[in-house]
Design a protein that fits this description.
The complex is a heterodimer of chains A (about 400) and B (about 500). Chain A is mainly β and about 400 residues long. Helix content of chain A is about 5%, strand content about 60%. Chain A has a 14-stranded antiparallel barrel. Chain A has a two-stranded antiparallel ribbon with strand order 16-17. In chain A, strand 11 and strand 12 form a beta hairpin. Chain A is elongated. About 0% of the residues of chain B have low confidence. In chain B, strands 3, 4, 5, 7, 8, 10, 11 and 14 form an 8-stranded antiparallel sheet that branches. In chain B, strands 2, 16, 19, 20, 21 and 23 form a 6-stranded antiparallel sheet that branches. A 4-stranded antiparallel sheet of chain B has the order 1-29-17-22. The radius of gyration of chain B is 32 Å and the shape is elongated. Chain B folds into 2 domains: about 190 residues, no CATH class; about 200 residues, no CATH class. Chain B contains 11 helices and 29 strands. Chain B has about 500 residues and is an alpha+beta fold. The chains are: A mainly beta (about 400), B alpha+beta (about 500). The interface between A and B is large, with 61 and 52 residues. Strand 7 of chain A pairs parallel with strand 1 of chain B.
Amino acid sequence: MKKFLLALSVFSGYAFSSMIGIDALGEEQVMGGTTSAAARGFAGNAKTGDAEGLSVVNPARLAFDAKVVFNLNFAMEMEDARKNGHHYSVSNLSMPSFNLSFPMGLFGAMGLSLWQHYSSSFNEESENKSIGSNVKLEYQGSVYEIVPAYAVRLPFLRSFSLGASAHVVMGNTSRNLTLGADASSVAKEDTWATRNYLVSDYVDGTWEIKDHPAYYTGALQYRGKMVSYFFSYTTGYTLENELEYTFRFSELDTLAASRSVREIDVPAMLATGINYRLAKRHNIMMDLTWRVWDEDIENIAGSWNMPEVTETQTDFMVSLGYQFDGSPLFYESFWNRINYRAGAWYRNWYVKDVFEVGGSLGGGFPLGRKGTTIDIALQGGKRFADTKSEWEETFIGLRIGLTGIASWGQTR
Amino acid sequence: MKKKNFWLLSFFAAITLFLSACIFESDSDGLETWLSDRGMPSNYPVQVLSIENLKTSSARVVFDSSARSGNVDAIVGRRANLKHDLVLDFAFEEPEDTSFMNEFKASDSAAALLFLYWQQEFYKSKWIPSKTAPFSEELDVAVSWKFDNSSRSKFIDSIADISDSAWYEDLANWKPSGSADTVFKMKMKLGDTAVHIPMPSALIDDLKKLKKAARLQLRISFPTASREYRFWGSATDSHPYLAIYANVKSKVYFPPYPFRVAKLVKSEEECSDCFVLHGGGYDSLVVEIPPEPILDALSEFYGDEFPYEEKNDVRQMVIHAQLTMARDDSRGENELGWPIQVVANSYVDSAEMTYEDSVDARLRQKEAYAIFDTSLVEKSGHQNLVFHAGDSLTLQLTYGLRDFLNRAQDGRSMKFSMCLGLPYMQEKKIINGDYRTTVEDTLYTADGEPFYVAKNDTVSRYVGYFDYSRYDFSTTVENPMTLKLWLASKRGDE
């Protein structure tokens, strides 16, 4: 367990996120953050195949897989935030998820995912004497989920499968705002005692679910010859963030810490998706997720003049995707064996008056004969914000996924 | 890859990088503007507030009369209504050559002398006024002792098992097995290394009863002394010893020496409700100031209620705090003639440290005196001194005020304590290192280590010895005080 927590803390150092909603939950890594889904505009949760792997939105899909799939994902993103002629850029690197699925024939299939569901990451500093600023701001937060899943095809209706998953939540979050002194209003004879301390406004805490060990997803999948679709329902839950908040001159010289718990009611989510096979290896797909936020989210800590809460709105995402399946035959040419993907999405964030449009291109490139694939997705888009505190963001991203496919336990 | 494709890809890569560089570039004030839009500051303003006419709600002197180690500084005497006794703890076995003890036990002219070595480094120090030595004084000497005798050698081991702290505690209830008063002429002239005080015959009679091993706890007191005498303790090279002679005219003696020494301190102040502190005494003046005037002044300064209902408020971040009080040096006396530092301690519990399983322990934090107004120091001297020019005393109480404002919601008072510290030789210097020697010489550090200095060397002027002085702080606690705060202030609505 210690090794696992250590690994988790290392992963949490690789969190990327938008600057939007950074005091609430941060950015949501939708659809499990897998590179293959990202390349299709986050569509394709209804797409079945031999080795599609685990979908945290649609665990029922797993039942149709025939091969063991291991999948590790990396993401890089550059963002440029703008408002009223000012702009600021950041870049980040993260590991949004890794997934393992293990089909067991008639006994169904099991899967396990480690998913960085929400993340907030920011580490910037500035010292600008002309405007008297001396500031360093760090955010580091991840809501991690361990998602065990199980799916099985129905005994007599073999085109249908049922799946369920539990989402065990853990993680931590911190904000450190370090400020230098502005002694410009101090009388000359008193400046000797201003000391130029760096003062830190520091808060950190941990995540868990209130009163339950996990929240749950149930899904129904249909696989037809041309059309596949799914419906899923994810239960609502209350995230609990235990926080310790203090002002400090150094780690050993602090004011008394105040401890608080912020509770975030995450509503239930409905998701559906369809995949239509146009011709032999051409697929178009569409996914929809829907979640109605009833309550605003208390911010991580509200000192200075920061707003106490982040206002919410109905959070939904419509995604459209296309995939050309590469040939599974190893003796085909390399270009024929590539999975070509493209997609676009519209997404209403959980943050009020923030929405996002984006597009992506990508592919799955086979490595050798043994079923290893490198997935790549190039993404770009814009997050629009019509609020006082959030800025619009233009972003480009590169995601890389490493997928291993094997036939363990399968007999010919 | 064909050459044409390579150049094409390179061209697109260069265009992409160029466009990325154009798009993903930050303004010089981009971060500050983003922070401002989110209600975050990019620095914290410092503001200064002076609160006058503060009066104490209580003040009391706490005198700690617990026994202390005299293993290094063996101080005995009486000065400024402060009296020091010494207790020397000897544990010794009969010498292997029993002929000496047999002679001693049978002798009618046996004697015992207590040898005490002067702290010559103090008396010879260049920084110490000449009036401290030489001297000569007729002294009453009160000697009392406990003598535990045993026929077993292992008795010595059992004494070693008694911890110092347990011994100090035991000394509070001193019940001697024998005592005697004598008279002794204490003389010291520069160059003298030691003094030897004859022990009374009753003690010698007890020593003659030595079986195999013994423990002797010997208490020395000078009840009529006019000064404190400074000797080296048992943990130094110049440790005391008891020279036991079979014949007072003989040069052969048996020299048990104490393995530890304790100082017993007693205040002889007659005024129980006075605010007198002693240099070198373990006493402190605990002062409380009611919270209302301070919090009211802060509320008025900020224009809203202080402290906020919310627990975290950056305005509790005290950058610097100092309290200025009245002072009257005529109500004190000192020996060495140098100004003496007043050391401030604050009661701090914000750190939430546990003490004896209590998380609510009131902990004392020594206030740092690391920053000061250099122009004021050069003009008027350090402001935390008594026995120097001026009529005010300013103590820095940053930790204490930070803690007080942090916890003021619970209604506590602002509480601090002060005690007299070491003498301060350069009251108008900001560093202690500007004495230039005029001749080559051997000087001594505070703990007695000699060191050689050449001509024109720069050395620190530092006195590591207490001035056994007294100071009446009645003027200080009875007059209004002024608190000055440097605050990390919350930025207003912008």
